[in-house]
Each structure stands twice: as structure tokens, then as C-alpha cells.
Design brief:
Shape: globular
CATH class: Alpha Beta
Strand content: 25-35%
Order of helices and strands: HHEHEHEEHEHEE
Number of helices: 6
Strand order of the largest sheet: 3-2-1-4-5-7-6
CATH topology: Rossmann fold
CATH architecture: 3-Layer(aba) Sandwich
Distance between the termini: 35 Å
CATH superfamily: Vaccinia Virus protein VP39
Radius of gyration: 15 Å
Number of domains: 1
Structural class: alpha/beta
Length: 172
Amino acid sequence: MSDLSFRAMAFTFKIRDFFSPREYIVKEVGIKEGDRVLDFGCGPGSYVLAVAELVGKSGKVYALDVQPLAIEMVKKIAAKNKLTNVETILSDKKTGLPDESVDVGLLHDVFHDLTDPKGVLEELHRVLKTDGILSLSDHHMKHDEIITNITNRNFFRLFKEGEKTYSFAKTK
């Protein structure tokens, strides 16, 4: 995505977030204080502040994106809000995180746009703890498409459908 396209998308997300704040969506996921959360495809950081508040100072938010402007925007959000529990990762899929080190993986507003969804799911499966949760929210995809795409490799199974999110448990 070009810088101009990314900036346009970031602007539309600000409008969206004004009318539909992201904290209502992340509360549905069940993120707890002390959790380590990977916001995969964090974009301009729509979820970062809400997630950072939920995990508290004892938790951690890893904001990953392939777009350098996204990482820059997340760093600005973290600095402006004095968030010491946010770390950025510039990557298309490799997180650099240890195996089974993440409690919750967020794939919000991004799955439909991934160039290597299978590779991303493999990486998420690797970094999620045994009892980890993969949360997906993507209004560009239909219900059956979401379920099939996430469960077809037997890495995850659907365990909860919320109003805005699908929660998958790690298998194997």
C-alpha cells in the first residue's frame, strides 16, 4: 500500500473509530490485565490504546505491521499517552517473539488484506500460548468464509462468536 493510500485509510479509520470506538470491540475479546497481546496488522493503531489500558502496566501490546507509517503512528500514540507497555514490530508476518509467549492475537480489520494468510496463521499458532485466543473481526468477509479460513488447517477452532468478533482457541 502506498503512503498516500495508507494515510487515506488511517483518516477513514479515525472517522470510523469516532462513531464506533474500538474499546467496545476489544472488551468483547476478554483481554485481561497482565495479558500479552499481539495486534497483527495494527494499521494506524486503532486498537492500541484500548488494548494497552486493558492489559495494564503488567501486560504488553505488540503492534505489528508491514507499513512503516503504521509503526510510526503507533509509536506516536504510545508516546502521547505515555504507554510503556507497547512495542512495535515492522514485519509482514514474522514476529520475532518466542514460542507460546502471547495470550491473545488480534486479527482485526486485516485478514481480508493479507498476502500470506496461511503463513500469518502459522506464526500466530506458534506464538500463542496453549490456552491462547485468536480474535478475528473483519467486516469484509462473510461468516462462513471467516470460519473456513481460520479452521481449515486445524490450527484453531471456533469457540465463541461475539457481536463483532470471532474467538478461536489454539489446537494441537
